[in-house]
Amino acid sequence: MVWDRQVSIKSSDEIAIMRKAGEINAEALAAAKNAIHPGVSTAEINKAAEDVLIRHGVYSPFKNYPGPFPYPASTTVSINDELVHGIPNKRRLKEGDIVSIDCGTVFEGFVADSAISVGVGQLSTEAYNLLKVTENSLYIGIEQMVAGHRIGDVSSAIQQYVESEGLFVTREYTGHGVGRRMHEGPQVPNYGEPGNGMLLRKGMTIALEPMVLIGTHVTQVQPDGWTVTSRDGSLTAHFEHSVAITDNGPMILTLLADGTPPHQITGQ
Ligand code: MG
Ligand code: MG
């Protein structure tokens, strides 16, 4: 990961640009979601998102992101035990899979970063519950993103909720500041202690991203150098929004134009 550790405070004009970046990003994720059907490849899902970015004349900061080799796609598409950073390829979705799509957008020099996890057709109760808990944990964390709170208030809210549901949060991957760069300071873990860590201030913009696993918090990187999976092979899920801290509380930047998220878990 390339991290610019500095925390940057954004003006309201800059936040307005980031909201526009987030709207395009949400549109790309919604298109990717709509492409999800049994038999569709993860490369086709990536293309559905990328087509939206191209149509808007923007690009993803994921493309060529430095790593074991430059990241080759606009999104990451991760299936089942793959937690994050799955490289889109010829693998085809099956009924009952969980697909996590992470997408970024650069618009007028600012980045939006957001992820959704989507079930393919009918899910097991276990898989459905994982998706619902992961989605809930994101919004529980966002509620804590208020000026005057500390990062630990956000982190611990996510951890306590997820663990109360008998699931696990990852330790090795975290949320992060987002702005002119995809990864800025501060790091925002999905675990922690209330009252600890950096004070949240108006104008901070943070990509909050709970990554939740059914059987363990331990992950491993696959031989391709990018794909991160649960160590025990258990199912995983990931939801992410980029959020600005404002005078009026947390403002989610990565919503569609109508103010709704690109994906919501509904009853099955
Ligand atoms: Mg992301
Ligand atoms: Mg992120």
Could you give a quick summary of the protein structure above?
With 268 residues, the protein is an alpha+beta fold.
C-alpha geometry: globular
- The whole-number mean of residue pLDDT values reads 96
Question: What class, by secondary structure content?
Answer: alpha+beta
Instruction: Calculate Rg over CA atoms.
Output: 17 Å
Largest sheet: 5 strands, antiparallel
- Ligands, ions, cofactors: magnesium ion
The SSE order reads HHEEEEHHEEEEEEEEEE
Helix-residue proportion: 25-40%
Placed side by side, the strands forming the largest sheet appear as 7-6-8-13-14
- The CATH superfamily title: Creatinase/methionine aminopeptidase superfamily
Descriptive key words:
268 residues; binds magnesium ion; Creatine Amidinohydrolase; 5-stranded antiparallel beta sheet; globular; 3-stranded antiparallel beta sheet
Structure overview:
The protein has helices spanning 12-34, 42-55, 125-143, 151-164, and strands at residues 75-79, 82-84, 98-107, 110-119, 168-169, 175-177, 184-188, 205-208, 211-213, 219-221, 228-230, 236-238, 241-246, 249-252. Helix 1 packs across helix 2 (42-55) and helix 3 runs antiparallel to helix 4. The protein is of the alpha+beta class. The protein contains four helices and 14 strands. The protein has a five-stranded antiparallel beta sheet. Strand 13 (241-246) and strand 14 form a beta hairpin. The chain has a single domain (4-252), classed as Alpha-Beta Complex (Creatine Amidinohydrolase), CATH 3.90.230.10. Residues 113, 176, 207, 209, 240 line the site of one magnesium ion.
